[in-house]
Amino acid sequence: MKKILFLGDCIEGYPKIASVRYAGIMKYLSKRFDFVVVNDSFFGENRSQYSIENFKFNNKGPVKNIKETNFNLNFKQKVKVKVKNIIKKSYIFKIYKKNQMNERKFIQKNKEVIKDVCDFIEKNKIEAIFITIPSIYPVYILKEINKNYPEIPIIAEIRDIIANEIDTNMSKKILLNCEDSIIELADNIICLSEGIYDYYKNVKNVRNIEIIKNGYNTEDFEECSYKPVMDKDKIVFSHIGSIYGGRNIKDFIIGVDKFAIKENKKCIINLMGNLDSIALEDIESAKKHINGNSIINILGMKSPDEALLELKNTDISVILTHKTGSEYAIPGKVFECIGACKPIIAVSEDKNLISLIHNIYGQCAKHEVDDILINIQKILNTDYNFDDRFKFSRKNQADKIENVINTIIGD
């Protein structure tokens, strides 16, 4: 089979939706191509089962956003979090943010693995390079490879806007430089949503570009079917994934509790994933406004299998996006919610997410307590049809990506 060099952050087995996506797609593509994988050791130390060779780069791990997955902090720990937050806002931290692990430092730190990759290319014919981003470190490696092998065509899969500063400690200048590099080097760009497509097509004037939406692993949800929640006395809401301060967990909790009171329901809110200190403080604050009809469970980070089981057992799946800045990408978890046939309450004003979900697979609410209440009530009184969910299967995605690769390499 023809060899493809894959550059990315995650491989299978890491508790992150990008890892689930990687495994789901590579399950099919690895039967059609031989993949040489280069990934971040932080997001997968073991060799990928879908590779014939797997090189690891090291970015020393992402700078933690002062995350605390243990909700029951003692006084000393709470003081420590407060001090860290003050440091985060300081001038010194801002300097650190702008200079942490820049391109020169990264290349120097990973010169051996870059040499190993180039040596492999020298001895083996690589038909194309497939890079998946927004992580910038694979872009640094791509640039080094391209200096030595400019003839190898490049396909870039963009899961979110590179220069989007949400959940990153990189300066805007670094992100923009990486974005420009991808636009210059890529022979073809695959976008995971209309928002990303519109940005690169209309704002950045990219020509060879197309949309291949995200999806879910079909075999994980084959037995799932839609179950209305109208007649249930107890309703479980599950948010699976990280929650940062900008995602407004406080208003969501208060909105759920208002719904519980108005509809005389017992509501359980399960939060599975990393929570930063701001989100934890918002949860503490929200607890002061609820009356006991709602229970909040902080479940912490779990394995992909445990996350899958949580999604299958929930009644209503929860998607929270940032108030601003997340209007381009559609969270990958949305497609798993669709695959599981779980009605979705999405607290978001992102037009691409709204067009996918609202009145189809669930409801979208503004970042306002009363609107969250109203749209949960709509879910209670609506029957949803998930019969067309298989159009989002990983196999469909893999088939489309294979067509792009074959077009680029001339098959």
Automatic annotation (TrEMBL):
<keyword id="KW-0808">Transferase</keyword>
<dbReference type="GO" id="GO:0016740">
    <property type="term" value="F:transferase activity"/>
</dbReference>
<protein>
    <submittedName>
        <fullName>Glycosyltransferase involved in cell wall bisynthesis</fullName>
    </submittedName>
</protein>
